[in-house]
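Illustration: GTP pyrophosphokinase.
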Amino acid sequence: MKHWDQFLGPYKQAVEELKVKLKGMRSQFESDPDHSPIEFVTGRVKPIASILDKANQKGVPLDRLEAEMQDIAGIRMMCQFVDDIMKVVELLRMRNDFEIVEERDYISHKKASGYRSYHVVIAYPVQTIHGEKKILAEIQIRTLAMNFWATVEHSLNYKYKGMFPDDIQMRLQRAAEAAFRLDEEMSLIRGEIQEAQAFFSRNKEMQQKN
Ligand code: 0O2
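Result:
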């Protein structure tokens, strides 16, 4: 257990630091006339049981985890609109506090499961008492609709261990299509939504001042 604490320490630190930094990007948009492409940010360190399961499934020896498992540190950035996703990716590409090592576009190329999301794998330098340590972290960028579907599918996957009964499989596929259509519809009335949101936050500001 002490070994796991030591191994996961830099990942925990990376997740905490990245959450502060990427939430900071959202706060900066609050004082900017542009609409924030980031709705909210979450992060987690993969639980030990999931690390072991995935290593087992993929045949990764435990001494290769650091080099081969890219999502022990995981960050999610949620957006309102599909177009916001590439804006967030551009913002990540401009940063110089980490290096992008890989990008996976499951939006243009959705997975057979119906999963959609944009993954950016980064090498993030963590400062430790033994010096700098670069760790891999995966940033998943998705819309609220994509996140809803992925969260539900993930729970069902956990229950059925990937062996979905036919009716559930069919419903999940239909739900994935519905989430896709929801994203399309929201994109079409994006201007209206943003105007209403700007009006709402101006009103809130005025009320706070009075
Ligand atoms: P958790 O519990 O989220 O940590 P592979 O497992 O081979 O598909 P690989 O090579 O690690 O994946 O890379 P990938 O697909 O870019 O990233 C894996 C992570 O993406 C998963 O982590 C999920 O978070 C998410 N993901 C990928 N495919 C799906 C999917 O079909 N459904 C859902 N709900 N999420 C998906 P873990 O380790 O599976 O899980």
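Reading the tokens back as a structure: The pocket of 0O2 is lined by residues 46, 50, 54, 71, 74, 104, 111, 113, 115, 119, 150, 153-154 (CB under 6 Å).
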